[in-house]
Every structure is written in structure tokens, then in C-alpha cells.
Amino acid sequence: MPRSRPVRYATPVRRSDRHGRGARGPVTGPHLPLLQDRIDVFEMTVAATADFLKGLWPDELGDMRVQIAAAPSAALGFDEVQRWGVDPAHKAITLYRVPIERLARLHRNDDLHRKLLVESCVFRAVAELLGRDPWDIAPGGRFGHY
Questions:
Q1: Is the pLDDT of residue 65 over 90?
Q2: Positive or negative, the Cα torsion across 112, 114, 116, 122?
Q3: Is residue 49 within 8 Å of 119, Cβ to Cβ?
Q4: Mean pLDDT of all residues in the chain?
Q5: CATH number at residue 128
Q6: Can you give the residue range of the structural domain that contains 81?
Q7: I need a labelling partner for 3 at 20 to 30 A (CA). Which of 12, 96, 133, 138 fits?
Q8: How confident is the model at residue 146 (pLDDT cuts 50, 70, 90)?
Q9: Pick from 67, 106, 99: nearest CA to 86
Q10: Where is this region: Disordered (predicted)?
């Protein structure tokens, strides 16, 4: 009587070197910089400028709140759109991102000029909150990129 052999089932073998192409990896690669979009850059610029001004005027702006909204809830008029709002009672300013970005008439539309535009709007909103000219709150009286 012939001896019976134990049946071995072939286990599937996974290979990372399919068709000689090497190991699989992430599509984007491991060392790409973090992606930043317009909204992130706008928010970072507003935060950095507000922190800078709070450092210059700690007594007046120590408890100031800065908010960012997409757009104002209502237009001021037919040809006028609000770019920021100031609430002196709560020491808060609200910057409206879309009007600031879209209604700017920059002579050069690059990253530097867009950043300067946002900074100038923050300076003007803070100056309105304090009841002063933007030139008075800037260090050395230097202000007015636009």
C-alpha cells in the first residue's frame, strides 16, 4: 500500500519587487514641504503682524482679539466693500480675507506685495481701533506700502 503524503497548501507569497520595479513606497516621497494655500498664508501674515503690533503696544493691545472672516455680512454701498471691521468695546478687529485679496490693485502681484497688502490692512485696522493714524503706530513712523 502506498504511503500517503501530507497535503501542503501553497501560501501566497507577497513580493515587494513585482516585475523588477523595486519596493513600493509613497507616491509623494518622504521629504516634501508642507503645502500652504492662500488662506494659510493670509492667516499666518495676520497673526505675525498682530503679534508684532502687540509687542510694540503691549498696554493698548495686550487683550486685543483678531478674527478672520471670509467676507462681511453686508456691503456698505453699491461700490464700497468693507475690508475690516473694528469693535472698540470688545477690543476686536475682524479682517475680511476675500475683499482684501480680490479687490487689491497691486502693481506687482507676487508673494511679497500680497504680504505687504495684508500687513497694511492689519496696521490700518489696529490704528482705527486705537484712534490713531497708521503712521503713529508703526516703528519710526514708517508705514504706507500702498
A1: yes
A2: negative
A3: yes
A4: 82
A5: 3.30.2010
A6: 38-135
A7: 12
A8: very low
A9: 67
A10: 1-30
Q: Which of 75, 121, 74 is nearest to 95 (CA)?
A: 121
Query: Does 1 have pLDDT greater than 60?
Result: no
C-alpha closest to that of 121 among 101, 136, 139: 101
5 in a structural domain: no
Which residue matches cell numbers 479682517? 95
Q: Tell me the chain's radius of gyration from C-alpha atoms.
A: 28
Q: How many other C-beta atoms are found inside a 10 Å radius of the C-beta of residue 117?
A: 19
SS (H, E, C) 15-66: CCCHHHCCCCCCCCCCCCCCCCCHHHHHHHHHHHHHHHHHHHCHHHHCCCEE
Cα-Cα-Cα-Cα dihedral of 19, 21, 27, 32, to 10°?
170
Please enumerate in sequence order all residues whose Cβ is within 8 A of that of 34, keeping only pairs 6 or more positions apart, or say none. none
Classified as helix, coil or strand, 92 is: strand
Measured distance CA(47)–CA(118) in Å, rounded:
11
Question: Residue 101 in contact with residue 130, Cβ under 8 Å?
Answer: no
